[in-house]
Design brief:
Blueprint: H1 2-13, H2 16-34, H3 50-68, H4 73-78, H5 80-85, H6 91-110, H7 114-123, H8 131-156, H9 162-184, H10 194-200, H11 202-210, H12 216-241
Helix pairs in contact: 1-6, 2-3, 3-6, 3-8, 3-9, 6-8, 6-12, 8-9, 8-11, 8-12, 9-10, 11-12
Length: 242
């Protein structure tokens, strides 16, 4: 599995497209947080990273599919998937290696955003920031990235066309993150099914973690959904082999 993991990381950073995806993500977040007046932290009135943690999921649901879209699609297109099948690796190990490599790249893309924490600390009048909320929000982002990566890996296994994998992953990530909350906001569902619909989506659990309160049900949600998509990917690949 480690060989697949290291190959995925090397392959991503060996491609100009891969590096550009991370550069565009960091550039876009920088523009949103420090240049555009409607979302700028400098115009927010007080030292807070709320805007970053509100905007980041929507940017990540484009970044992560860009990272994962070639994971299996290129293997199918080039014909190396059959070669992988001849190696002493189980399908579960291949999925795990692909997932781990893509997840590592996505987390490395998030790492430079730690600079924003120090920036807010420096901008605050007395050095007081909501460290608990920031830590919880970053934990929520880590789990969200893990979920988006699992979805992206699954969508990449659906087609030999990487662009199809990207579009499907972006759509599925959006629906899982915000789709259930959007449906729950329908007035006719207020007071009945709205709460349960919200709990089916990732946004409610991400917001809960962002408050700095770590609850078991939020962690279990992400673990279960991530595991589900990885199992679906393995099952899909076994059917292709069969």
């Amino acid at each position: 599995m480690f060989s697949i993991f290291s190959k995925e990381v090397r392959q991503f950073f060996g491609s100009i497209t891969g590096i550009m995806a991370i550069v565009v993500f960091l550039l876009l977040m920088g523009l949103l947080l420090f240049v555009f007046p409607d979302t700028s932290l400098l115009d927010y009135g007080y030292a807070s990273l709320d805007n970053f943690f509100s905007l980041a999921p929507y940017v990540l649901l484009l970044l992560v599919p860009a990272i994962t879209m070639r994971s299996f699609a290129d293997e199918f297109r080039v014909g190396t998937w059959e070669l992988l099948g001849t190696k002493p690796l189980s399908t579960a190990a291949i999925v795990g290696g692909k997932y781990g490599g893509a997840l590592m790249v996505a987390l490395l893309a998030l790492l430079p955003t730690i600079v924003y924490v120090f920036t807010i600390y420096w901008l605050s009048s007395n050095g007081s920031i909501d460290s608990g909320g920031i830590a919880g929000s970053y934990m929520g982002l880590l789990f969200l990235v893990g979920l988006f990566t699992a979805v992206g890996i699954f969508c990449s296994a659906l087609s030999a066309n990487a662009m199809v994998g990207f579009l499907l992953a972006a759509l599925f990530c959006y629906l899982i993150f915000a789709g259930f909350s959007a449906v729950a906001s329908i007035p006719a569902l207020a007071g009945s099914a709205d709460y349960f619909l919200q709990q089916l989506g990732a946004e409610a659990h991400y917001r809960s973690l962002s408050r700095g309160v770590i609850q078991v049900n939020d962690l279990l949600y992400f673990i279960i959904v991530i595991s589900l998509f990885l199992l679906l990917t393995r099952r899909l690949l076994l059917r292709k082999n069969g």
